[in-house]
Amino acid sequence: MRVAVFSSKPYDKRFLGEAAAEADLEVEFFEAHLDVRSAGLARGYDAVCAFVNDDLGAPVLEELAELGVRIVALRSAGFNHVDLNAAHRLDLTVVRVPAYSPTSVAEHTVALILALNRKIYRSYNRVREANFALEGLLGFDLASRTVGVIGTGRIGLAVATILRGFGCNVLGYDRFPNPDAAEVGLVYVDIDDLVARSDIITLHAPLTPETYHMVNTDAIGAMKDGVMLINTSRGGLIDTAAVIDGLKRGKIGSLGLDVYEEEEELFFDDLSNQVLQDDLFSRLLTFPNVLITGHQAFFTEEALEAIAATTIGNLVAYAAGERSGNEL
């Protein structure tokens, strides 16, 4: 089987390349994002391997099918960028990596909470300029604070476990409660109760039509004054314009993001020599109480090894005429 890997970076070549070699798969790495302009690169390949910011809408899938591609292997858990109806119509198999390292995302989530609370990023810059003043760096004890976890799958539950270790009271909301939640001390409440009671709200829900912009003007209005909001899940969960308004009014006391709803034009590339064209993102960067990382929460050795192993395993299973269990 010949596999075309799009949006590839040096770390993809390392981890995917090693896993593919062990499975005796022929893999070619392309730096280009997959879209209607680059889909032609897949000519002669049986499979394409795509990432979260690749375009897998109907026009792209139609071209891939015409070129002879039979399977699309996502090296991610999310699949909101895939037109599954078109894929099924074209008889294209789509597989994903449903879980890789919930610990990596959970630990990054808590890192954002700690950095925002204790103003680590601001104090780092001050000390480098020989400014040792503490004014403006006041934080609070996490112990006894209430944290609301929206989405209690493996990642959400890992976050809850870590925060319970800090002594936090952890509330949870999920349409499908996790049976292991009680064991880690998470208490389920309805969404309105969670929003109203939480000092910190962290998002770990999938992006669906029901969850799109779940953090909107109304939801922000119901939150505590000065709430900390964290999103390491999917950018579309947040209405960015509404969040900016909440920051300006002081309703949102601090904001930590590892994802952004228009990130496909920004993240994973070096744009340091360009003027950013996204006005909302640029506006977010002006706030001293906003900390943004570029979709790196998953980025640990353990996670990349797991992603590569599952991705290659999905392709090997397909080549053998078997199901991996990760089909969409």
Strand content: 5-15%
CATH architecture of the largest domain: 3-Layer(aba) Sandwich
Total DSSP helices: 12
Report the CATH C-level class of the largest domain.
Alpha Beta
Largest sheet: 7 strands, parallel
Shape label: globular
In short:
The protein has 328 residues and is an alpha/beta fold. The chain is 36% helix and 15% strand.
3D structure, described in words:
- With 328 residues, the chain is α/β, with parallel strands linked by helices.
- It folds into two domains: 2-100 and 301-319, 3-Layer(aba) Sandwich (Rossmann fold); 102-292, NAD(P)-binding Rossmann-like Domain (Rossmann fold), CATH 3.40.50.
- It is built from twelve helices and twelve strands.
- It has helices at residues 10-23, 58-66, 84-89, 102-117, 120-128, 154-165, 181-184, 191-197, 217-221, 240-249, 279-284, 301-319, and strands at residues 2-5, 26-29, 47-50, 71-74, 93-95, 146-150, 169-173, 187-188, 200-203, 227-231, 252-257, 290-292.
- Strands 8-7-6-9-10-11-12 form a seven-stranded parallel beta sheet, sandwiched between helices.
- The two termini are 21 Å apart.
Which helices and strands occur, and which strands form pairs?
Blueprint (H helix, E strand, L loop, with lengths): L1 E4 L4 H14 L2 E4 L17 E4 L7 H9 L4 E4 L9 H6 L3 E3 L6 H16 L2 H9 L17 E5 L3 H12 L3 E5 L7 H4 L2 E2 L2 H7 L2 E4 L13 H5 L5 E5 L8 H10 L2 E6 L21 H6 L5 E3 L8 H19 L9
